Amino acid sequence: MIERFDFLLDDVEGLYRQLPERLGPVERSHFAANWPAFARAEQLAPAGDWRVWLVMAGRGFGKTRAGAEWVRSVAEADPAARIALVAASLHEARSVMVEGESGLMAISPVHARPRFEPSLRRIVWPNGAQAQLYSAAEPEALRGPQHSHAWCDEIAKWDDGQSQARRSWDNLLLGLRLGSDPRIVATTTPRPVPLLRRLLDQNDSMGSVEGPSGVVITRGRTQDNAANLPARFIADVEREFSGTRLGRQELDGELIEDLPGALWRRGLLEACRTGAVPAMNRVVIGVDPPASAEGDACGIVVCGLGEDGLAHVLADASVEKASPDTWARAVAAAAAAWNADRVVAEANQGGAMVEAVLRAANAALPLRLVHASRGKVARAEPVAALYEAGRVRHVGQFARLEDELCGLMPGGAYHGPGRSPDRADACVWALTELMLGRSGQGRPRVWFD
Asked: How far is it, in rounded angstroms, from Cα 94 to Cα 301?
């Protein structure tokens, strides 16, 4: 008999996969709802007497599922549970935490599914447990209500422009006074924001499990959940973001801090990000040619001046370790794709050669050669002021370009990836032409408090 059990245990995963096919609808629902049987260990609440469980991990790690399953376990075990569900907005609380693919409604078995009352922003379980939806953008809504538990989603995304995120968290803590063991689960992809830093500071060390203030931290990477993610998705994000600071943040779950005194900050770039592309009055391509094919990248960045009067970074078409013919054709292709009005190329590294290879790629290229009289970082300072003044938008994510921008320091130093900020320099040339040149809109006017 013992040998038979050993044989079965050898293929326990295979048997577990086949089991649902042999069950009826009700049994299958119970089976699918057995979260501890399917979850990875890091998706289950840690043992011990903790106050806050912070799940700080990369995209696709399974943070939402972990938070929703924890809420479900609390609600089903305690009819008196009163749970706060807090997101960056009420829309996200509903679309992600409640109705999303890993939200509370989707993960609950049919026999114990809660009732969602959208007009009351409330979820009610069959046993009487309740959850209320809140927006972190409305701190005062959390002043007064009492709760026994809370799930806070994407806390690093909460707007903290006027300290709303921290005030929402504080009001939530002050109202967490029901029951004998009030607790919070916070799930997020990391960003260097004050609320997240505060929670990390409350943990007695970055590698510890439990800190003096009852904060436990679970870290993880996108790759940890690869078995449940499309292989195409994994391949695409690795190709696009691997080796970048953004990739370390969004995929590996690392908290990437800004360099002290850098001209660009991560928060500034996030604030200028948009998905909308207005009609363009003018499109310019900035080019920073490499000194050799074996050396740095050829920075090729497309920027446009929109009808809204703002500059928009539209594309990063830079190429790595390319021959002159290759990078010249990349410039010509970008100019054709974006119907560029002008290509601005730095000519310090042999102006005649730069013009010759670009003309060879496209004789009709609207080319202007510029000679840098100042260092790359010095040229970047007035462009950084444009960002501070709110006059530049990034249409999408540009991981490598933004890494370089965040490595530019006042006074001429560069502390970013690679030997030289080629993409950043190309972006600076394009934005200078659009916004600070003779045909631009004049120098930015910056107000200080």
From this structure: 38
